[in-house]
Amino acid sequence: MFVYVIPTGLLRLPLAIFLGPKVRDRIPDWVITMPDLFEYLYDRKSKLAVAISMIPPVLYESALLTAGGQVIHYVTGVNIWVAMAVLGIIIVLYTSLSGMWGLAVTDLIQFAVMTVAAGFLAVGIVTAYGGLDEIWKSIAAVDPELLTPMGHNSPLEAFSWIIAAGALYANSQSYQRFGASKSGADVKVSYTLMLLFGMCFSAVMVLSGMVASVHFADAAAPSEGFWGLVFTVLPIGMRGLFVAALLAAVMSTVSADFLIDSTVIIHDIFKSFIKKNMTEQNVLIGTRIVIWCFGIGIVGATYFWQEGIDKAYYYIGGFQVAAFFIPLIFGLTYKKRTPLAGFLSVVLTVLFYFVWQFLLGAPFGIPTNVAAWIFSAIVYLIVSQLTYKPNSMEASEGNASGA
Predict the structure, then answer these.
(1) Residue 46 confidence (pLDDT) above 90
(2) CA neighbours within 13 Å on the CB side: how many for 290?
(3) What's the rounded mean pLDDT across residues 316-342?
(4) Is the CB of residue 271 less than 8 Å from the CB of residue 278?
(5) Structural contact between residues 299 and 87, judged by C-beta atoms closer than 8 angstroms
């Protein structure tokens, strides 16, 4: 609650109030994807670097698919591999056939289901366990550390969770949705409301996890304890709604990322750098083929995330946020940005992330995303100072607009 839900919700407000409307109202309409945005802010080298860097994080979808398969497995008893394969095929089918409009419609329905289900779960927990005071007492009797603002986190770990707010700033879905909005005013209203509902949903999930860890401490796995809680506090009809809500959360994220990453490969890499004369029909066919390839690959990659999605979020999501956050925010707000600063900030931070995390093992207890942000900012500011020339970015933007 105190190191993630509340601070990240507040820190994301500037994206909804200032940056989102700015991107919608001031950025040219030809800017469709995040690599397009980097081309507009910097140059085509930066676009290619970002496009390539966006592909590996698609592995995170395999962790989400694992979570969805576990939901189906626990509820129905169906073999978990069969459940993940069926769920993956369903997502691929409607994503490849419907495109962005279909995702917009399904996202709206899924968001409504998630919100209603979370509300019922919160009421069910408070009612079943005698109110919040009784819940706090039961948690304090087993693990009082959970009721402190820091929980079991060190100051650096807490800070690492807090700056996870940057994930939304570096999320390609955000910028494509900004471009699809009618105006900056629509972005401001819709994203502010989305953040509010998102905080409420996350708060309910945290509360559920705390209660499950106490009242279902003997469960074989945390996920089993969570579902034990759900089936204890919710009546039959609401249980089904909550199962649908969790599947909706998985499907919404996976389908959007399938479409976006497929668009990156075909639109931002293949058409922009390899076959520039591709027709729109060929782009559509190519995007559908890549979506299917992703779907098959992701179902197979679920093998690596049987321990849960937290490691996938930390490693894969953290890598993308660390590489994109600084050049994105500085590119939209810093007057002395330069093409080389944007390019080197992305490329060197990707390399730094893997060295710091996997070769050095996050030394000195400094979380990798914290170290990567510091490194990225230093690289960006030094290169900008060394290469900045007055009016250079204005000329660059003019060339990009002409292209």
Answers:
(1) yes
(2) 22
(3) 85
(4) yes
(5) no
